């Protein structure tokens, strides 16, 4: 069974209206199957995004058997560097 990946896209306030339906909405989430899909979306909309955050399963806690998830910010750190 393949675990889905959730990508949360945070749009710049002056560009959000081009992509999102609700007035004042800045954030949307998309469920995808691969990290490549997240990267493709991020590349397509990079000039309108404040950040893109990925939530994906990273494994299982050996003591409890509960899933462990990893969170990665894709754009925030790259904007700080450049």
Structure report:
With 82 residues, the chain is of the alpha+beta class. It has one domain. It contains 2 helices and 4 strands; from the N terminus they run ββαββα. Strands 2-1-3-4 form a 4-stranded antiparallel sheet, with helices on one face. It starts with a strand and ends with a helix. The model has no long low-confidence stretch (mean pLDDT 86).
Draw up the topology in text.
Layout: E1 5-11, E2 27-32, H1 35-45, E3 49-60, E4 67-73, H2 76-81
Antiparallel strand pairs: 1-2, 1-3, 3-4
Number of structural domains: 1
pLDDT < 50 runs, ≥5 residues:
none
Number of strands: 4
Strand order of the largest sheet: 2-1-3-4
Provide the β-strand percentage band: 35-45%
Largest sheet: 4 strands, antiparallel
Q: What spatial form do the alpha-carbon principal axes imply?
A: elongated
Mean pLDDT: 86
**Straight-line distance between termini:** 39 Å
């Amino acid at each position: 069974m393949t675990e889905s990946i959730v990508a949360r896209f945070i749009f710049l306030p002056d560009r959000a209206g081009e992509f999102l339906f609700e007035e004042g909405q800045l954030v949307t989430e998309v469920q995808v199957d691969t990290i490549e899909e997240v990267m493709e979306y991020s590349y397509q909309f990079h000039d309108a995004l404040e950040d893109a955050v990925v939530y994906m399963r990273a494994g299982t806690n050996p003591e409890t058997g509960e899933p462990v998830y990893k969170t990665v910010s894709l754009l925030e750190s790259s904007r700080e560097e450049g």
